[in-house]
DNA sequence: AATGAATGAGAATTCATTCAT
DNA sequence: GATGAATGAATTCTCATTCAT
């Protein structure tokens, strides 16, 4: 999981944050291979050796960045199931995921490219926390489905579908900008106006 | 669309195909930056200069590959609207896109990484043919929506959603393999079993 | 000396001429190293192997070009001494050299870059014909000088100086174009108007 | 003029000097295209990337070398006009240019090949300082000519002729070595003994 | 006589990383 | 702690030349 060193001075942790912020910018725009730690160091206003003092190598920086960002994926998922209104719970999840795409597109693209291209990693436990919660929620949705609180659906594909439709707006941003006549400002509202009814229709149990 | 040279000798077109095949493999796995023409040449059993004899440079190889693959994206779209059963037409499109993800995942990932990371291209008209047909179909779906043949939906977001949900199975393959309990063989059937009802519910006009 | 094969078909010798003409253009503009036989072949509208059929390799092409062009340097020199008016003879030589710079600047630059940069040549007898005539004329001028037909001057430096001042207009063309306010059309006339009086003053014997 | 970075560490300026010295040797002997930074690095006893650490690329190294050498061309020109003896002033310029050819032949050849072959440069302002002073001196000589301090001559062609005759000994060194019977030691003295009377005769106003 | 195809040597970079100060 | 300096491996591409047909 996150291997952030436990005891850091304030300065050290400020530097780490500056670096991670630049790394997010550069990695999400260029992918792992396309990004050079030089450019990242430059964006963070420091020399490369100084960057490497904080993160021992490029791969460490990259995976620390990924794991420090993972909560953005996990958090919205965690909230599912606070209330008993199953359809609404899932729709709220969709809403939160849309917000994420709007507010944190770089993080979304970072993950997308990691999954799409992926680097060989010695330790591939990076996504373990996500997977744990994923399984919990799968179970929850399955229960809801069994109990008739939502229409019967395959919970796996439901979540895949939600991830796909919501993250698409961040990850394929470039294409959508080209194709859409709408201003980007309204785009996410329109997306919500499309997706919420879709999932509502899908999930509302027929009487 | 980069036009494949019209008159090729036998050897040229054989070599081109060998190279493009290896290039698809390597580019889709590693992205543009992560792929070296060395590795591609090696995979195609030839020396790098020999490869470069057939494709003048890396970028040319890459964009020729993209454009030679673009029809896989365009073709299923083109078929929409053969019959008058609007809901069925769109569902069939979904089915075809699922098949594409199953049968041509590398091509799907190639495009995904191009849109996600994208290289600056001198001539960015690569996607023009897709965009043209896209607009045609947007118009068609809008008409269907107006005429009440499908429920009222935003055609843009409908297509984005179809692209997202279907291509997701190819593009995020790695993640899905990890998370899904199903055997991959059934995965695409299950996906279809999930998506077709979803879009049917969404699109069937309420009377 | 010139190693032009003795017996050539008409077609062969036409091809050779086409190639030499393109080679002159490319070599004089880019130097030996900067010129590629590809570009030369292209400029001559033929494939590189076909070019290499006529000239076994790049160096051969280059030195054949040099020797086929050498007469432009030699010819004006050869004429010196037709009449007995020594000053006029030399001035006429200057005039002819100026014409050469005006009419054959590429040839002049080709030689200049050969002397300036020079490639290591197995057989460095290329300039032998020039040197032979050079020595003859040195002798002639020395005699004129001894006989008082021209003012006493070092014949070597006289010829160097004539070469330098006249060829300069072809070889340093780029610089002169930048510095000179005159139109290029008049440039060579102006040069003559400057140089002839200079050499006349220099050479006219004082009584 | 490419500006040498203002603040250099000790090592930086030492390395720069070593590299520039090797670069002068290699570039002046082989021209821009014929010189490889490999050879230059080797001559400077370092690896190519180490060289490239100090000069970002080949062209930068080349143009830094040119501009650092430009003063050799400019300085002798600048001195013209210190005294009022116009003929002597110009003759002294000739003498200084001959010294330059004797003492800095590689620099002279470097410039000659740049003008002769020239590389396309993003910023072609390299020679601006020279051109500025050139124009000043043109004006001065024109004034002298108008005032009768020297015989009436075209100042442009006068300077071209001085450049041509003096630089010739450095630039065409190879040819001169072959043709001249003199030992090289005396060559420059002999050149001076030829050129000074020539320009004196040319410039001395007839009363 | 001619071309398409291929080769191997080198060229100029780039880049993650290390070292010395 | 931090930077300037350097390294070595890899990468893209060029080019003279050769080979097979």
UniProtKB/TrEMBL annotation, chains A, B, C, D:
Keyword Transcription (UniProt): yes
What molecular function terms (GO) are annotated for this protein? DNA binding
A single Pfam family it belongs to is: TetR_N
- Keywords associated with the record: DNA-binding, Transcription, Transcription regulation
Q: What domain of life does the UniProt record list for this protein's source?
A: Bacteria
What residues are annotated to bind DNA? 36-55
Q: Which SUPFAM superfamilies match?
A: Homeodomain-like, Tetracyclin repressor-like, C-terminal domain
Record domain HTH tetR-type: where? 13-73
Which InterPro entries does the annotation name?
Homeodomain-like_sf, HTH_TetR, Tet_transcr_reg_TetR-rel_C_sf, Tscrpt_reg_YcdC_C
The portions of this protein that span the membrane are none
Name listed for the protein in its UniProt record: Transcriptional regulator, TetR family
Organism expressing this protein natively: Cognatiyoonia sediminum
